[in-house]
Structures are given as structure tokens and as C-alpha cells.
Fold:
Amino acid sequence: MGDQLQALDALRSSATGLQKLSNPARDSALYELVKLSLCPQEDSPYQVIAKATQAFLLCGHCDMLPEAAPVVPDYDLTDPMDLANFFSFANIRLLRGAFIKHLAKEKLGLPRRQEAEQASCGSQTALVTHEEVKGWAADLKAGKERQRIFAISHDWLFYDYCCLYQFLRTNSEEESSFCSALQNMHVIYSHERTMTLCIDLTPHDPSSHPSSPDFRCSIYHFPSNACVEVAPSSLLPNDTPYDSRGWCVAELQASQSRHGVPGRPPTQRLVGRYPDVYVEDMEAQVPMPPEVFRARAEQGQLRFSDPGDLEVALRLQSEAFRKTSGRFESLSLSELEADEIDVLVKALPFLSNLQKLEIKKSKPLAGKMEDLAKVLHGKRTLTSLSLPENELGVAEVLLVIQVLGDLGSLTNLSLAQNNLDNHAWVSALCQVLEMTGTTGRRLTWINLQKTQMGEKGAVALAQALHAAEAKTAKTQVDLEGNDLGAGALHLAMAVKAHEGIAVEHRMVKFLCLGLKAEGVLLSPLIGRRDISHLEFDFDESAIPDLGDDGDDRLEALFSEHLLELTTFTLRLTCKTLGSGAETLAKGLASLVKLRNLQVHLGSCSVGDDGAVALAKSLGELTQLTSLEFSLEHNCVGDKGAVTLATSLERLLELTSLQLNLAANSVGDEGAKALARSFRNLKTLTELQVSLKSNSVGDEGSAALGDALGNLTQVTNLQVNLEHNGVLDATELARCFGKLVQLTHLQVNLGDNRLGADSAKALAASLSKLEQLTCLHVDLLGNSVGDQGGIALAESLHTLVKLTSLQLDLQGNLIGHKVAEGGLQGSIVGHEVAEILATSLERLVQLNDLELNLAGNMLGAEGAVDVARSLGVLKGLTSLKVNLGDNGVGTGGDVDVAAALAESLNNLMQLATLQVSLERSSVDDAAEALATSIGNLKQVTNLQVRFKSNSIDSTDARYLAEAFESLAQLTELWVDWADNSIGDEGAKGLATSLGSLKQLTRLQVNLTRNNVGDTGINPLAESLGNLVQLTNLQLILEDNVVGGNGVVALAESLGKLVRVSSLQVNLERNSVGQAGAVALANGFSTLVRLANLELNLQASGVNDGAVDVLGEALEKLTKLTNLEVDLRSNPHVDLECVKTFRARLSLVPMLLTYHDDDDDDVKNLSSLDNAI
Structure:
């Protein structure tokens, strides 16, 4: 080493002499001196180059440098043309990616810039011309997107060895190019149109290079003044780690500025070891101020192969930082060490435009938070501050919160996944929220995931959000991963009370789905521990399936904050409640101060075990005065009913009980147990019990009657035993006669097997109940016959206080006699009707009457008597009468219709009118009926059901014209199925409908009316004008509608954007491909549609039509129920139907399809049972 130093001194002393020589002589002498004095034979070519470079510079070889430094242009780091100009000014030539691939294929090394200028790749030069680069920049400025330049691209790239002139630069042009490049090197690494690829794959030991043994790389050999091929093993190893190499760090720092510009390309790095490498985005690095860079270099933390590069690198790094620090809009940093955080603290004041700062997974941050908080203070450009997963404690977070008030533009804050184990910090945050809320500024997104926020913190946060009351911006708080306890309820109330608040948390969102109350009612409850009333209503879309293991979401319904509840309502519908019933039972049992409770669990598969658990919980609520408990359609049997009865016996303060066990498996044992419990409830004044669609027989019915007869204090009684196995209800019927205090009575015994005796017993009881104001008797589908009918009709005679009467005797063999050949009419039917008419005429206080006598044999005179009696009841505001299918016979038709029309002329106060005259041949009285209906100016709800009445186009026009005069009409139901209105009748209906723009609900049934496109087109046009419709049913089954008519109809449907429920039946019409596509297009605009029933059976649709239909329906995000009938369409195959079902797999669906290979009709209700 000493010999070499002496040689260097000799070179320095001879520099003046060398400069006096001519250039050729001087160069020759210099080369010889270097060879003899600095480059022993044992030196590697790498050492030769390094030493020769230093000697060359020391010897003052200055005439090869520019005499004066040129003016350094200032380049715009966003302008592609400025980048192109820099390449041109510094004569930097980019390398073609295709040339790199060629070298790799031929296993050749990279050439220097000097040699690369002579190389080619096919018909192109290896280096990109300046004209090409400027053309690229011009295209970009003209809006033509092309490839980026990689600052090392799949197309063009900058690689300094190939793109900059390398040692030995032998003329002033090469040296000038190199110096100009160095002066603005940061432009390449910082420009928004470049990307940087970091390659840290060079092995520390050259002998371990994975290439073949005969691989050679080209290196300039100073002694021979030429490039020579050498083995990598002969090169001097560079054992400096990549992140300690000065130039590498400087270049990465320059590249780093692109991380802070939204939409700009990041820096990427190659990861792995050759040949198993891949590219990934590099995480951002801490921006390094120049003084930090210098200090690290001077301390040896950053190293340079040539010590002379230090000052050059420092100048370039300083210039790059100066020009790019203001570009940082976003900075995301991860896994920082303590010294990196120190650098960040020093850098932040320079990042004048920083808007988003994220520091995550940096454990040392806790110890540096005070320093960070100081520099954040007053950082008014900051809109987002994210500090997740840093193991921050409460003290550190309080430091952050203290500066929030000074961050005037801050809208986003994340403190997620830190160790915040008490709620002191929440109180501080809440103060900031309240302060910003009053000043009009607002944090719009707060991420507090997994911060160990507990109940107290959540309640405090709810109060703060409520107090801040978002008015101008929405505040979203993410609290997932925290056990909020009762706080979840208070947050849910805050969300429901203010549209501007949203909370991401499983429990909170669950509670929000069910919480029912106006914000004005919830606001006073937020934060209180003495909540007295709450109501929840969860439908199946909120909880599709709680599973056999239950769901801890149900626990959120109950907490210590609800122990003061006196009123609680829970409605829940789901497929499987599972052990959630146990959770509900436990929660309910804790609400011991309840006075009013409503629990409705419909179709939840509760079963006997769940019913037992729930029933036992009710037994703990001994202060209840009002209870509504519904387990309809839940597979509950006698076991559950018996346990429920046992619990009810303990509720001695009950005054009101509503019990619904409909559609279960309760038999006589369960019914008898319930009866015993009712007997003990002496304080009851209201009792409603439904055992509809169970297995209760005569014993159960009799037991109920025996018990109910003792409840002499009851004034409102409802008993529903519809669709059971009751043959004899006389005991039950007799009990009602003991309850003379009753004012409201509802008895539903429809669809059993009752005869005249049961009807007579019921009639005898009814005649005693002179205090009744409301009576509902449903005996539909029994066999009470003439005697039972007469008794019931006579019983109404004394009930003169009635204001509401519903009597359903449809299909009860009244007026029938059994004769050879089947049922025939009898004169007794007329007698029943006459007595009933007489009784009705006495009920002058009635304002609500529903009378269903269809399916009997009243005869013409009987039907006329009933129809005429209605005219006496001038106080009626609601009338629903069904006299259809009563065997009026030829000659009586006109009388019935005329009598009804005459009565309607007296009922001017009607707001609701429903008239059904099926198979009554009223066509000759259509004009009279139309006139009467048209005079009812107060009607808002009208249903006219004239199915099978020989109505022709003229009749249809009369009736339709009546609708036009009903300006208050909002609901209309027109059922003219099985008539003959034809196209002309449809046109008349269309004219009337077009004027009813106030309609919100409409049903039109024109099944089998020989209506074609000529009638449908105007009807469609009119429908398109009814833009207030929310519910539409259009039934056109078995007509002659063609593709044109369906297209017109579809276009009109598409205009009804308010519709949420739609039924379209085009069965046995010629819909075809075009019609189905039009329907799909129409449906696609109905963004509010939740329920759709579409019948395209035998309509000529094909696979393509079904596909288009599926695509359209898939876009309807609010759709919750879908029924589609595709039967008898031979060009729709199974695979198409399966695809349709899969596309809409999230929508509850009944999809009916007829497989030609199998005569059975297939219902595809889910993918699991798809054909």
C-alpha cells in the first residue's frame, strides 16, 4: 500500500509536466504511469478501473471536461416533454427492452453505453433515439397513453451502465453528457412518468454467480484501453449491503417521492434468489432530509465506491429532496425502526403538501410519540392520520388526540389495533368530536378496530356522536373487533337517531336492522342506564339463519342497561333460530321489571325445546300486565304448549294476553293445558288465542270453552281454531254466552267439520251478547246448512250496538239439499237470506261490514233480499260483499245486480268498496252498477270482481267509465277473468286507467278475455302514466297478446320506477324472444323492486331470453323475493335454468320449470336441489 501511495504522490507532482505534453503524448504517459505504479499484476480488472479513474482525475485531465458548467435547466417532474428534453440535453439514450431479451437469450452481458451505441436488435438500434422519446412525450401530452419509462420498462429502460457514457470517457462530448446527467439525475428517478425497479440480487461472492462456467461479462480494461470479456469470479466483491450504498439510497430516495402522489407508479423490487424471483411493490421509505443524508454518509452508514462521488451525491440528493418534498400528498410507512422515526420527525416539516400520513406496525413509535405530536401540531394540510398496529398505549393516544383540534382539515383518523385498555382516551376523543361538531368541521371516518374499547367507552362515544350531530358530513366509525357490551345498543340508537352517523360493528349493525323508533324518540335514551322501552323488528333478510349453535348477536339485545325496561318488543323471522332460542330466553328472563312484552318469532324452527326455554323465561316475568307471544309456524307440539301453559299460570297480573301458536303441532293435550292456565288468569280483560292449523280436536275445543266461560271480566275475546280437526264446537260456542260483558268477539272456526249443532250453539250465545260493538264470525268451509244459517241470522237481530261486523259463511251448504245426482237448491236458502236481511236492516250503527255468502244456494230472491238490505245501512264507510256463485238461476240475474246498484246509491259515505259477483251473469246490469259506483266520490279503495259474468266490450266500457269519476281512488282491483271484453273492452279500460294518475296500487285480471295487441297497446300506454304506483299485478293469462304488445307493455313497466312489488302473468301468450328481452329491459329500471312474480309458462321464450332476463334481474339489488314460472317452453333447457338460478343465488326464489325429459314439474328453490 505504501508503494501505491508513493506512486500517487509522483503522479500528483508530475501533473504539471503531463499537462504540457500534447494530448497523445500525455495520454500515453498517463497510461504507462497507471500501469506501472498503480496496477500490480495481482489486481483484478475492477481494481484497475477504480484506481485508474482516481489517478486520471488526480492527474488533472481537465481539458476533456467542459470549460464552463452549462446552465442547468429546471425540469417539471410532471411534464413528459421535460423528461424527453432532459434525455436529449444530457444525451442519455434509453435501452430497448427487446435488446435486453436478446442479450438474455444469447447469454451475453450488458454493454457499456459506448459499445451499445453500435449494437442493434433486429432492424432497430439497441438504444432508443431522442426523436422516439420526444414522440412518446408528444403523444402523452395529446392524450394518447403509452408505456412508461422504467428507471430500470418492459419497453424502454434506463440502466446507467448502458445509458450513460462509462469510464473511460475519451472525449469532451462524452464527459459533458455524463456531467449533465449527474446534475439532474433525480429527474429520472422522480418523474411521474417513470418507474423504478430495485434489483438487489448481486451475490456478495462473485464465485457463486449462478451462470454457466464459461459466462463472461464485458468490462473496460484500462491497461489495454479496451473492453475485455472476464469471468465474474475475477471481479472484486462488493460486500456493502444494498441499503448502505450511497448511490442506491440516493436513487431510492428520489424515486420515493412518487409514493406520495396519488395514482403515480410505485417503486418495485425484485424479490427472491435467481432464478426464483418475482416483482412486488416496495413499501414507502422515510423521506430523508439532506442533513440526515450527509450525516449518515459522514458517519460511514452510507458508502460510495468512489469517495469522490460523495459531494456529487449529496448535491443531487439535496436537489431531489428540495424539488420533491412538496409533492408528497400521501405517505404510508410500515415497520419503522426508532432511527427511521427520528428521520421522519425531521422530514415532516418539509412535506408542505402532505395530506395523508400512515405509520403502522412500528413498535418504537410509542417512545417517539411526543416528538411526532409536536411536528404534527398545526399541520393544517393533513386530512388523514392513520396509526394502526403500533402498540400505542393510552398515554400515547392522548398525545395524538391533543393535537386533533389543531388539525383543521383532518377528516380521517385511525388508531386501530393498539393497546387501549381503558376508556380515558375515548373521553378525550369525544371532547374533540363535540368541539369539531360545533365548529362545523367533522371527522368523517374514524377507525377504532380492535382497540379494546369496552362498554363505557362505547357509551361515551355514542353520546359524543349524538352531541356532535353530523349535519354537513357523514361520520363513519369502525369498531369491529371490540366487545362493546351495552354500548352497542347506544351506538345503534345514535345511528338511528342521526342519518349522518354510521358505525361498522357486527352487533351495532345487527341492532340497527331491528331497532324501530323515530330518531326523536331514541335521542333521549342515548347514554341512559334506565331505558324503559325498546322495540326491535328483524325480518329474514336481516337474519337469514342463526344456525344450530345460536348467534351471539342476540346477546346484544340484552344488557345491564336494559334491566329497567318496562316495555319491550321483539319481532324476529329467520330460517333457523337454533340455540338462539336459549339466548333469547336467558335475556328475557333478566328483564324482571317488564310490564309490557311482545315477542313474535315467526317461522324460526324453534321446536319444542326452544319453546320450552322461552316459555320458562316468561314465567320469571311476574310483573307483566300485557303479553303478546307468537310462535307461529315453529314446529311446536304439546310439550312446548304445556310448558308455556305452566308459565302463564304464574303471570297473575296479566290484563291482556295475545297468544299465537298457529301452524304448529299442538293437539288436545296442549290445548287443555293452555285452557287450565287461562282459567287462573282472573285479571284478564283481553284474550286473543290462535291455534289455527294445529291438531286440536273436540276435547281440546271443549276444554278451551270450559275455561273461557270463567273469564267474566274479559271484554275483548278472539279465538281461532281454523283448520283443525274439530267436529263439535258446541261446548266452546256455549262459553261465549256467559261472557255478557264482551264488546269485541272474534270466532274463527273455518275449515273444520262443524254442523248445524255447533252453529246453533254459537248463535244462542251471540244473541245474549247485547254489548257487542265488534263481531267477527268465520265459519268458511263447514257444513252448518240451512238450520245453522237461520240460527246465526236470527242471532244478529239483537246486536243493535254493532259498528263492525264480519260474517263469513262461504261454502256452508246453505240452501242445498242432497238429491240423486248431487246437491240441488232448496227454498230454505231464500229463507236464510231473508232472515239475514231483516237482521242486517236493524244494525243501523254499522260502519264496517264484510259479508261473504259465496258458494251457497241463496237463490235469486235470497240474494236480492241481502243486496237490498245493504241500502239501509247508510252509515257504512267500508263494505265488502261477496254474493257470487249462489245459484241465482236464469231470470234472477238482473234483479241481484240491480238491487245491489240501488243499495249503493244510498251509501255515499263509502271509502272502501269490494263487490264480488262471480258467476252471477250481471252483464245486463253493468250500466246500472257502473252508474252507482261512479257516484261514490269518497271511495279510495275499490275492488270489482265480476269473474265469469259474460261481460262484453260494452259492459266493460260502462264499468271503466265509472272509475274515471273516482278522483280519490288510490287502490283499484279489477277482476274480469273469463269474460269477453276483447280488444275494445281493453281499450275502454285503458282510457279510464290513464286518468287515474293518483293510483298507488293496481290489480288487473283479464284472464281468458281474447285480448290481443290491439287492446294491450293502449292499456300499456295508460299504465306508463301511473308513475305513483308502488304495487302492480297484471294478469293476462291465456289471451292472444303477441310480441309487439309485450314490448309496449314492457316499455311502460320500465317507467314505473316507484314499484316495489310487481306481478306479471303472460302465460299462454306469444311473448317470444323479443318480448322477453323487452321485459328484461323494463325490469332493469325498477330499482326499488323487492318482490317480482313472473309467469311465462307456454309463452315461447328460449334460452337467450332467459339469459337476458337473468342479467337484468341481477342488477336489482333490492330484490328479496322472486317467483318465475318457465314451464312448457321447449326451447328453455335445464342448463339455462340452472344458470339463471345461480346468477340470482342470493335472492329467495321459487323457480318452476318443466323438463321435457321428465313429465314432472320441477321447483328450483335453491342450488342445492336444482333438478
